[in-house]
Specification:
The complex is a heterodimer of chains A (about 270) and B (about 290).
Chain A: H1 6-31, H2 35-40, H3 52-60, H4 63-93, H5 98-110, H6 115-128, H7 134-158, H8 162-170, H9 175-186, H10 188-204, H11 207-212, H12 221-231, H13 236-270
Chain B: H1 6-33, H2 50-55, H3 59-91, H4 97-105, H5 112-134, H6 146-173, H7 178-186, H8 191-202, H9 204-219, H10 223-228, H11 240-249, H12 254-285
Helix pairs in contact in B: 1-12, 3-4, 3-6, 3-9, 4-6, 6-9, 7-8, 9-12, 11-12
The chains are: A mainly alpha (about 270), B mainly alpha (about 290).
Amino acid sequence: MRKPYLIPLEILGILLALLWLSPFYLMIVNSLKSKREIFEDTLKPPSSLTFDNYVQAFTELDFLKTFANSIFITVMSVVIIIVFSAMAAYALSRSKSKLSSVIFYLFVAAMLIPFQSVMIPLITIFGKIEMLNRTGLIFMYLGFGASLSIFLYHGALNSIPRSLDEAATIDGANRFQIFWHIIFPILKPITVTVGILNTIWIWNDYLLPSLVINQQGMETIPLKMFFFFGEYTKQWHLALAGLTLAIIPIIILYFFAQREIIKGVSEGAVK
Amino acid sequence: MRIRDLSYWLFLMPVLVALILVVIAPLLLGVYYSFTDWNGISANGFVGFENYTALFQDERFLDSLWFTTKFSIVSIVLINVIGLSLALLVTAKLKTNKIMRTIFFMPNLIGGLILGFIWQFIFTKAFDGIGSLFGIESLQGWLSTSSTGFWGLVILMSWQMSGYIMVIYIAYLEGVSKELIEAAEIDGANVFQRFRHIVFPLVAPAFTVSMFLTLSNTFKLYDQNLSLTGGGPYDSTQMVAMDIFRTAFSRYDMAYAQAKAIIFFIIVAVIALLQVYVNKKREVEM
């Protein structure tokens, strides 16, 4: 039986959802207007549908190239974080040594360090060894991303019985074989979580790439968006079209994988 | 696996090297630099605590620290209240609860830089439009004063993060057993009593997690600050992260910026540890 107080709640929910969406509504509606039309009224829908703003924003953002740059950096970093964090967490969870728990807590403690506290020497060090490039950036993502990923993998590994490893050892498998063929497949649910959390972070990250990859043609979406916005601050019709373009890829991903994404985020936070 | 096995070190080496080169070495080097007159290229000598004492007379830094603190407190309260309310709303048996979850969570997928730009349009253009349409003067000229900049940042962060915190509360709320609530209902407990005495204590661990996440996200905020207000007008909405960045990369005062960065680390670490400690203690008592 539906309780009577549910109807006002339902209406409240719908109103709130509309309120939450209104920034996107305003962004899209105005991205389809001319500069003059935005100046006259920001709230009403565009008088005619033209995609001129999008065509110009697409060209000036060099969108395909920028998008490919973002994909490359995100995919490479996330894969590397997953592989090496899972391996490290495995070693740490399967060793009874005191040293292992010291190393584990070192990773956990590193999560407390704000990026700004290490930013300046980090850039100096990597500048000296000439690693202020994409390789350096991906390596940095491993350094910053490993802590949370190891923490999550470590928790999951503790619930996998050691007898499984031991049985495989008796069958003559070495450590790498045990890890890759037996343990890693069992870790799949947590791998999805680790992958999602790191993807959202790296895809949207602005500050680190802005310090590390400043060469033209290498920019990721947030980086390019920053320069684009600086050029078109007073030309909202173009800026808004650019912003809409920038968020389309992640919204499409969300549309297809929202269950996994919400579950991944909640697991990553709760554990 | 034993620590004298080669495989142990092979498994551990890549992340350990990365952590040392990316986090630990820069932190240690940063502590060292903060006691010198380092200018980004070379350090000529130790200056003792000079950078640190200068910092406590630096109004720009103290203002940004105060602004960050105010902003964090207001945001943490709002985000948690809104987040918990949304969680309660979408865990009621509504027809639309799936789509509502999707919508409330959506801003979290988009980078802070882009969200800040979108809201800059809303505050400066759309607010203006709504203001003149309904004759509300207070909606005009947003982000041009320190207080509208402050509330602009608070609104942006609440809109973005409430959905994230909602997801965390949902995870705990769904663990509250239906039988327990129904039993209380039969015993005559009203909605508020049920919430206060059954749901609230059971979701207490969610507070620990949510407080930690909101604090760390608001206190260290940079992207949204940069794209929404850019620290303006006249640096009055500049938060600590941005002040550190600008001291280093706009004014090239490297050693001094690094001293700020170390103080920033100490504050963040102390608050985080204190918070975890207090919350854990409270959870046990409840």
